[in-house]
Amino acid sequence: MPERPLSNVERFAHAIAKAEGYGMKHVIPTRYHNPGDLKAVKGFTYPGQIGIGKGRHVIFANDTAGWNALYHQISKMISGESRHYSPSMTINQIARFYAGDWRRWARNVSHNLGVPSTTTLAEVLEEI
User: Fold this and answer.
1) Which of 3, 5, 102, 119 could in theory staple to 115 by disulfide, Cβ–Cβ 3.0 to 4.6 A?
2) Which helix or strand (DSSP H or E) is residue 55 part of?
3) What does residue 44 show for φ and ψ, rounded to 5 degrees?
4) DSSP H/E element including 86
5) Tens digit of each residue's pLDDT (9 = 90 or more) over 78-110
């Protein structure tokens, strides 16, 4: 049976995971089953979270829990429920909140999606 195509949210999540180094041996996102390199939030526990590691990165029980947390975060970005992100933000603007080396992160995510880093989240989810 062929695999179903990824949704636009999933494609965006995979672009983030790749930019974070997920899948490479010995890097935090891979070791912690945290493809989005998500940080702990005070007073909140992600479903499947089993700990907090170096740099306050969330440790998930397995890859599925980590992916689900990333999909949930992206859904909050899209719906406007996020405190930091909105659908009108460009990849560059998202990167400034999301990543330490935001320029590299924005280049990687936009390259992985095949869009300019000035593309808004709303446009990304329509175009990809």
Assistant:
1) 119
2) none
3) -135, 135
4) none
5) 988 998 999 999 999 999 999 999 999 999 999
What is the domain count for the chain? 1
* pTM listed for this prediction: 0.91
Q: Are 35 and 63 in contact (CB under 8 A)?
A: yes
Q: The domain containing residue 58 runs over which residues?
A: 8-127
**Tokens 């329509």 found at:** 126
**Backbone angles phi and psi of 42, in degrees to 5:** -60, 130
Structural contact between residues 52 and 44, judged by C-beta atoms closer than 8 angstroms: no
CA 58 to chain centroid = 13
Q: Which two tokens stand for residue 5?
A: 């195509």
